[in-house]
């Protein structure tokens, strides 16, 4: 099994209806917009996908629906965000059984695992599955950093192939390339550092605001890879106030509101999250609506095509 870790991989939201059930009609509409824009992979069950409040049964149903909707037009990547190795192994088993093309893996949740424990956790899953794996390195939010020395250890597992680089230190892209060359594909994972990371050599972009603005996100990536830097910068500068919604504890509510405003989703979240109200909702809406009102014209050949 193989995944080409290149291009824009939307970390999609899980859609819910007013009865707190998964809304596959809304979900499919968003997926179609991502594919039409030129997304290369669809990541489900991540932080934006509200994985922590999905049951195991719902995760399986979400995966089955995604595989059906995508229908081989892009890679389907299931995120593993579990508290135990046993649960992570079961998630990997289900991913293979129900048609995922690859995995994204967080370190163990809740328990602050040390270096040895974290490596053993990743290794156990890697040895259990033929699926390609992308390690999600986000010490800012999840408190465990996967260091260069740890990646040295993980490099012996052939199916650990990529890194979602979310350390918020853009120079880490260069450190990884200097140490490992092309061994690990680097996927920038922080929207507000995306273009900078692409300029530094990142192979792809695991994106959040792409959920609401798929064409613009893909255009930035493609233009940067085509060497059309000024055109990419122009769109990125317009996009930045919206991209900053990705680095807030309420990123799920913020991005779902953006999806609603662009006709690609609903505001429904699962409690304990609640939809935005009052001044906060007014303030976030103003950012989103200003971006929509000033949406740039995208250059020819910047989306829906290979970079």
TrEMBL record:
Signal sequence interval, chain numbering = none
Keyword Metal-binding assigned: no
Q: By its UniProt entry, which InterPro entries does this protein fall under?
A: Aldolase_TIM, DapA-like
Q: Does the keyword Glycoprotein apply?
A: no
Looking up Pfam families in the UniProt record yields:
DHDPS
> Which residues bind pyruvate per the record?
206
List the keywords (alphabetical).
Answer: Lyase
Give GO terms: molecular function aspect only: 4-hydroxy-tetrahydrodipicolinate synthase activity
Q: Where is the active site?
A: 136, 164
Family statement drawn from the similarity comment of this UniProt entry: Belongs to the DapA family.
Record-given protein name: Dihydrodipicolinate synthase family protein
Q: What is the lineage of its organism?
A: Bacteria, Pseudomonadati, Bacteroidota, Sphingobacteriia, Sphingobacteriales
